[in-house]
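User: Okay, second chain of the day. Same drill as before: sequence in, structure tokens out.
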Amino acid sequence: MTLPVNALPAALSPQTWPFELALLPPSAYLVGGNVRDVLLERRADYLDLDFVVPEAAIETAQRIAKHYQAGFVVLDAQHKIARVVFPQATVDFAQQVGPTLETDLQRRDFTVNAIAYHPHTQQLIDPLLGAQDLDKRLLRMISAENLKADPLRLLRAYRQAAQLNFTVEPQTQVAIRALAGLLTQVAAERVRGELDALLSKPAGSTQLMACCRDQLLQGWLPQITADSLQTVTAIDAAYADLAADWPDYASLLAGWFKEQSVPGMHRSWLKAAKISQLLTPDVRSLKLS
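Assistant: Same drill. Structure tokens below.
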């Protein structure tokens, strides 16, 4: 599915990027969360762009970094992924997986994250109908095999549902329950990152309860009880009341400090209050502090 130019939001324009379009190969596509968020009209202080190119991903990143004297780092030499770091943006370039763009999109986690934008023609490529799921506010897996390939995606489903105020699609929930035990195979720091982002959301307790209901956190947080979950829910409810009456003060509690070097990571009094209900000696390996 290709969407017409006149249907695209202005926020997708390369004019919002920290580098000139002329430096981008004609074969490059913008993919992932930025495309999704623009279509949802979500705004972020920190721009996070992900491009896929069929070849020379690391060389492309290096050339742009050199042109602007920006930061440059190879994230994954084996899979050919590199990052350019600007003051208010990170730009990742990854080698396309498979012979075509559509093949690459088929390997991703959820349909809403598998929409590509071609900046040179200003067209959206949406073979998995992710735009329809955006309209329905549904988080739908592309396949159970894709979730199994990286079990962190199981937890990411609930984090993104909280982040976007979406619902996890029923068949996706069924697959997550069936694969829940695989999350223990994921490195602690990766699990911690997703939990950090989930707990930082003012309404994250709903999705935290869903995680526990689906036995997703049993291997990492076996000591969570119904009472502790109820307290976390009460904290979110109290925060919502506070935000209604004193929005500026509530904003301070939810945004005490943001680690911009790691997009999505937050330290806040709101998060600390919720963590206080989860921390025991059994979860020190996650370093949720």
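The longest strand covers residues 47-53.

User: Thanks, on to the next one.
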